[in-house]
Design goal:
alpha/beta, globular, single chain, disordered C terminus, 8-stranded parallel barrel, 41% helix
Length: 253
């Protein structure tokens, strides 16, 4: 369940503040083996740094809502995750239940096979159904780019925008490849300014995050939140860039 690392190029621009970077991170707590204690520790990281959100497994939504009440950290969760192959009715029911439990953001996986087969109309219909079930909460559409051609990525992005999605997203983090610079550029060029782009899958370093941001990504799924923000603080204090700032866990979301 590891994701190939993104291409790592040294960041050569100005450094944003810690709050600016934290406000772009969805701290990921999606690995299937996480215990309740490990989830609670991850929620504490999100609370400490003030991330945009946590993205938790559906079974952890209630606990996350309770733990983060009174903070600015939104509770997000996943639908049709990680393979996207369940029925539309199941995705809609899952979304409705999770919204009822307090989820404020929904990351849904499309039916990847239907998109690869050229059935973008089905994909758009399914996304629209989930958007409706989310009742105004942002829906982030996971394309799982590792399995798609560029033309299919474009078709998926267009279907997501037409269906009312708030974000298009590169990856689940559970395929063999994750976010790439080329994919972020392609997705940003495809959707209008009304739709944001989320990079996920192998975003483990500050350098990668900032380069993705330069290309137009505004939200990042990450397990290495503490390492990324720790490296940012170190550089703000005059430290030279480290050769490696990745999370010790090779399965980066």
């Amino acid at each position: 369940m590891s994701v190939a690392p993104t291409e790592v190029l040294r960041w050569d621009g100005p450094l944003p503040s810690r709050d600016e970077v934290a406000g772009m991170i969805d701290h990921s707590l999606l690995r299937p083996e996480l215990t309740r204690a490990e989830v609670e520790a991850g929620l504490a990281v999100a609370r400490e740094y003030g991330t945009a959100s946590v993205c938790v497994r559906p079974a952890d939504v209630t606990a996350a809502v309770a733990a983060l009440r009174g903070t600015r950290v939104a509770v997000g969760t996943v639908v049709g995750f990680p393979h996207g192959g369940c029925t539309t009715r199941t995705k809609v029911a899952e979304t409705a239940e999770l919204v009822g439990l307090g989820a404020r953001e929904i990351d849904m996986v499309i039916d990847i096979g239907r998109l690869r087969a050229g059935d973008a109309a089905f994909v758009q219909h399914e996304i629209a159904a989930v958007v409706q079930a989310a009742q105004g909460r942002p829906v982030k559409v996971i394309l799982e780019n590792h399995f798609l051609t560029d033309d299919q990525k474009v078709a998926g992005c267009r279907a997501a925008e037409a269906a009312g999605a708030a974000f298009v997203k590169t990856s689940t983090g559970f395929a063999a490849g994750g976010a790439t610079l080329a994919d972020i550029a392609l997705m940003r060029q495809t959707v209008s300014p009304a739709v944001q782009v989320k990079a996920a899958g192998g975003v483990r370093t500050l350098d990668a995050l900032l380069r993705f941001h330069r290309l137009g990504a505004t939200r990042f799924g990450a397990t290495a939140t503490a390492a990324i923000l720790g490296e940012l603080e170190r550089r703000h204090n005059g430290g030279a860039p480290l050769a490696e700032t990745a999370d010790s866990d090779p399965a980066g979301y």
